[in-house]
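So, can you check this record?

>
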Amino acid sequence: MVEFTLRRTRSRAKYPNRIREYRLRAGLSQKRLGELLGKGRCIISLWERGRRLPSLPNVFRLAKTLGTLSEALYAALYSPKPEEKPTNAKKV
C-alpha cells in the first residue's frame, strides 16, 4: 500500500511583524486587539507570526483600529520582498 502525505502550503506574510509593530505603537495587547476586532488572541498571534494572513476586510479593520493607513498595512503584508542583489553581479 502506498501512502501519500499532503502538505498544506501556508500563505506567509512578507513582513509579519508589522502588525505587531503597529499594535505595540497603539498600546494594545493581542487580547485587547482581538476584542476590538471580534477575533481571538490566537488569530492575532497567527497574523503577527505570519502563519496566517488577514483577509482584506480584516486589513481595513486592523488599520482603522491601529490608526494607520490600510494601504500601508496591506503593502506591508502582501508586497513582495525587495529583490536581493546577486553576489556574482558584474559592474558594467
Summary: The chain has five helices and no strands. The radius of gyration is 17 Å. Helices lie at 17-25, 30-37, 41-49, 56-66, 70-78. The chain has a mean pLDDT of 77.
